[in-house]
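# step 3/5: fold
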Amino acid sequence: NAQPNVFFSLKTWDEKPYNELPGELKMTRSSVAYTYQGDIEGESTLDYLMVYRPDESGSFVGLERIIGRVAGRAGSFVLQHTGTFDKSSVSGTFLVVPRSGTGELVNLRGEGKIELSGHAERYPMIFEYDFE
């Protein structure tokens, strides 16, 4: 079983409802910033679109630009996220958007997953990657 090789911490979270209709599920847009340690070092900005069921569980999609280093190589890249959540946990997968890398990360490929429960100072993720 793969061990977490990246840890991220929340810097900011700004969530606002959009597309609100009476009797329909709540939909929100969140602008988020994270900092990274481990195989990824750097900072990111991310936008999530989320939909909530009445029990506060739901689904999300997101796009995240990370600027920093992967395995010591400098540049930026974009992750595409999909996942689900409930009141106490988050389960998600992500992939490096093809040809999104810049600088020394121009050939970066990868994917990973996030399984979180509860709140913490930093969260683990598994990022499997290589350079084409």
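# step 4/5: annotate
The mean pLDDT is 96.
# step 5/5: archive (pending)
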